[in-house]
Predict the structure.
Amino acid sequence: MVDKSRTPKEKHLLKFLVLSVPYKVKYYPDNDKKNEQKVSLVNTEHWNVFKEKYADSIITTITENYLPNLKKETIKRVVFSPLDFENRPTNTRFGTLSCGAVTPYQLSSMRPIPELSNYKIPAIQNVYLCGSGSHPGPGVSMAPGRNAAHVILSDLK
């Protein structure tokens, strides 16, 4: 709604970000769940097919429950899988958008790993971490940046 050049007149841009999509999932090439020998973990060639099917199911759910005209009104869509994200920026290992998993072993003083949890990179002086890989993690809290700023100010005395 702010940048009118991004969409045709009277149209809007929607972005659906689905977090916690598993990196490895079971894939049934022929939709035959009875034949367990056909099951494999999704790999690069499977994700190119699977991501569209997964996106279809999400769009169907949103259309049926929240935005009845969504499917009909969609002009273009772009779908990224965890593998697509992994191949873009270098900090999205296994396709995580938050610089690592947000799980109990990566929270608080463990984020992103214990050696880096104080917003510093020990081996490189004056380099600080302030993104979603730092405590308290991803979101729009801006807390990682604030926390890193406090560490920087403390270092500067």
Residues 28 and 36 are 9 Å apart (CA to CA). Residues 111-156 form one domain. The first strand starts at residue 26 and ends at 27. The chain is about 30% helix and 5% strand.
